[in-house]
Amino acid sequence: MHVTHPHPSPHPRRPVLLAAAAALAVAGPLISAPTASAAPPRAAEVSPHAAQTIDNIGASGAWWVNDLANFDPKVQARVARLLFSSDGLDLSNYRYNIGGGGTGVTYAPRAPEDFLADDGTYDWSRDNAGRTFLKYAARYGVEDLVGFVNSAPAEWKTNGKSCGGHLKAENERDFAKYIADVTDHLAARGMKLDYISPFNEPTNSFDSCGQEGMLVDVSQRDDIVRALGAEQKARGQRTGIIADESTSAVKFNDELPQWITQPGTAQYVDKLAHHTYDDPSDANRAKIYETAKKVGIESWSTEICCFGKGGTGWAQEYDPTIDGGLNLSRIVYKDFATAHDSAFHWWVALSEMIGTDPYARNDEGWNDGLIYYDPDYATNGNQKLYFTKRYYALGQYSKFVKPGSVMHNVTGVPDGVEVSAYDRKGKWVVVVNNHNATSTSLDLHFNSRTPVRASKAVRTSATEDWARVAKPSVRGGTMSASLPARSITTYVLDQKGHGTSAVTGAWQGKQSGKCLAADVTIRTCTGEEPQRWSYDAKGALKGPNGYLTAGSSGLATSPEFTGAAAQRWLLNANGQIVSKASGQCLDVGGQATADGSRVGLWTCNGGANQAWFRQ
After folding, report:
1. Cα–Cα–Cα angle for 273, 315, 416, rounded to 5 degrees
2. Of 235, 238, 258, 410, which has the highest C-beta tally within 10 A?
3. Does 19 map to a domain?
4. 449 C-beta neighbours (distance < 10 Å), count
C-alpha cells in the first residue's frame, strides 16, 4: 500500500467509540465532473463495440485480519458474509497478503507472520489470521484469489528486516521456491491461488517500518519474475503472475516497459498491475492502455485508497458520506472506461483508522477502508462494525458486474454524469454516477436490434444503501431515468436475442470545430456524405472511402475490413478515439485548425485536438 502515514508506536489511545447510531454526515461541496462539451441534445449512446472483458472486482485482506483474529468468531463470520456473499459485496477477487515475518515493523497488525522457520523448514501453523479469511473467500467461491507480497522474509533482505532494503540477488531463487511452496500448500488445503504478485510498490522503500515493504529496482523485477515463472513451470503450477504493482500510473507507464521487454520475461506475466495513487489524469490513464497494448497483456488496477478533501487525490481524511462513495465510484469508472483495465481492487476491506468519530468526517482518520472497527477494541471490548458509503459504492459494481462481463463505452452523457455499461449473458448492467447537486435526466440508447426491458434498479445515495428503486422506462431501445442528486444507481436490463446497429454521424473535433473527412483530414462541417462515418459492433469506423486503418505510414482508409486491430477503434466518453492496435489517440497534428489538416495517431494527452464528438 502507498503509505505516508506509518502508524505510531506506541499506539495512541482514542476515546471509546459510541455504540449509539448516528446519522451519516451528508457532505457539502459539489464534485464537478470534467466535460469536453455541452450536454448533447440526443440520447447518450452505449457503444455497439465491446471495449474489454472484466476479470474481477475485489479488495485486500492486508493487516486488518490480524486484528480481526481477536474478534468473536461470529463477528469474523459476519465480516466474511459482508465481503464475499451475495448479500454483501459479493467480491470476485480477494488479495491475500503473504507475509514477510514482520521483522523490524513497529506496528503489530502490519507485521504479518511468514511460514519460514529459523532452521529453514516451514511452520504451516503460522498466519492463522490471514488464512482464516482466505479460507472464507475460497468457501464462498470468490472467483480469483491473489497472493501478494510486500516483503520477502527478512533473512533474504539486504537489511535483515521486513521493511526497507532489497531482496538479495543470491536469494531470488530461494524466494521463488518459497512462494511456490506456499502456493502448493494453500492449494492442497482448498485455497488455490489464481495469481501471485511477487512485489508491491517497488519504488517505495517503506524504511520507516510502519509496515512491510521492500525496494525492487527496475533491473531486478524481470529477474524475480523469471525466477518465479521458471519455478512454477517446473512444478506445473497454474498460477498466473501479476506485476509490477507500481505506485502510480506515471511510474507504471515509465518503468514497466523497461523490465518486461527483457528476454524471456513477458511469457511469465499474465496481467499487468498498477496503482493509481497519483490521481492520474485522463491522459495518464489512457497511456496505461497504450502501455498494455505495446506488450499485449491486459492491465489491472490493483490498489487505491486514501483520497479525500472533496477529490480523488491523496489526502488525510475520514469520510463515511456519499462524497467518499461517489469519489470511489468515479475512480472505478475511469479505470474501466479510460484506462480500460480489466479489474479493479480497492485497498483494505476493513480498517481501524477511524479517527475521532465513526459517523462523521474528521481529519484524524483515513479513507483506507470500506468498513471500520474500533482501534481500541482490545481495551473497551467494542467489536461493532462501522459502514461507509464507499462500501455500498463498490457494491454498486461488484454485486452486478461479474467476471466475464463485457464493458461498452458510453458517449454523449449529460454534464456531471458518468455512465458505464456491461453486457453479460443476455443482460445489460449500467452503473450511473450523478455528481450533480440536483437531479439529472438521462436518456440512454442501446443500439440494439432486439428489445431491452428494465428488470432492476438499485441505488446508493446520502439516504439510501443498495435501495431497490423504481425501474427506468424503456422505449425504442432507449432507457429514460431521473437520477437523484449525488447518487450511484445500477440498472439491470434484460435483452432478448443479440445484434447491434451501427452509430452513424459526423465526428467533430473539439479544438478545431472541423469534421473528420473521408480523406482523413479535417474539413469545415457540412453534414454531407463525405463526412459521415458509421461505427459498428466490430469497432470499425467506416467512411465513404472505406474503413479507417492505422498503418505504418499513418492513417488511411481501406475498402475491406480484415478484422485486424489496426481497423478497430474505441470511442471513449471523454471524446478520445483510440486505436486498439496501438492504444494511441486520433490526433490533429500540430493542433491545426485549417481545412485539409491531416489527422494521425499520437499518444493520448488529453488535448482538445484529440477530442471528437458526434454531430
Report:
1. 80
2. 410
3. no
4. 12
Q: Is 61 helix (H, G, I), strand (E, B) or coil?
A: coil
Domain ends where: 464, 495, 526?
A: 495
Instruction: State which H helix or E strand residue 395 sits in.
Output: helix 389-398
Best CA proximity match to 483, nearest among 456, 455, 460: 460
Closest of 385, 438, 434 to residue 81, by C-alpha: 385
Closest CA to 317 of 267, 368, 375: 368
Q: Does one domain contain both 516 and 375?
A: no
| Cα–Cα distance measured from residue 44 to residue 26, given in angstroms and rounded to the nearest whole number | 30
> For 233-249, how does the pLDDT look when each residue is reduced to its tens digit (9 = 90+)?
999 999 999 999 999 99
- The number of distinct structural domains making up the chain is 3
Asked whether residue 447 falls in the same domain as residue 533, the answer is no
Structural domain contains residue 95: yes
Q: Do residues 170 and 309 share a domain?
A: yes
Indicate whether 319 and 362 sit together in one domain. yes
For residue 435, the domain's CATH number is 2.60.40.1180
Of 367, 398, 429, which residue sits at a domain end? 398
**Which of left, alpha, beta for 63 (phi over 0: left; psi -120 to 50: alpha)?**
left
- In degrees to the nearest 10, what's the CA dihedral of 220, 226, 229, 233? -160
Which residue carries 508506536 as its cell? 9
Structure confidence by residue, pLDDT tens digits, 354-396? 999 999 999 999 999 999 999 999 999 999 999 999 999 999 9
User: Where in 172-239 does DSSP place strands (E)?
Assistant: 195-197, 213-215
- Tell me: the pLDDT tens digits for 116-167? 999 999 999 999 999 999 999 999 999 999 999 999 999 999 999 999 999 9
C-alpha cell at 173: 531463487
DSSP 8-state class, residue 318? B
The reply to whether 507 falls in a domain is yes
Q: Which cell numbers hold the place of 409?
A: 463505452
Whether residue 303 sits in one domain with residue 181: yes
- For cell 431515468, the residue is 481
Together in a domain, 319 and 365:
yes
Range of the domain at 321: 55-398
Domain CATH code at residue 606: 2.80.10.50
Average pLDDT over residues 466-489: 96
Euclidean distance between CA atoms 476 and 314, whole angstroms: 44
Identify the CA nearest to 98 among candidates 76, 129, 58.
Answer: 129
Separation CA 562–CA 552 (nearest Å)? 16
Whole-number percent of the chain with pLDDT over 70:
93
- Same domain (yes/no): 160, 294: yes
Cβ-proximal residues to 183 (8 Å cutoff; 6+ apart), any chain: 147, 193, 196, 232, 237, 239
Query: For the stretch 572-609, what's the b/e string if a residue is b when 16 or more beta carbons lie within 10 angstroms of its beta carbon?
Result: bbbbbbbbbbbbbbbbbeeebeeeebebebeebbbbeb
Residues 262 and 392 in one domain: yes
> Can you give the three-state secondary structure of 116-161, one letter per residue?
ECCCCCECCCCCHHHHHHHHHHHHCCCCEEEEEECCCCHHHECCCC
Closest by Cα among 57, 43, 610, 49 to 333: 57
What Rg value do the Cα atoms of the chain yield, rounded? 25
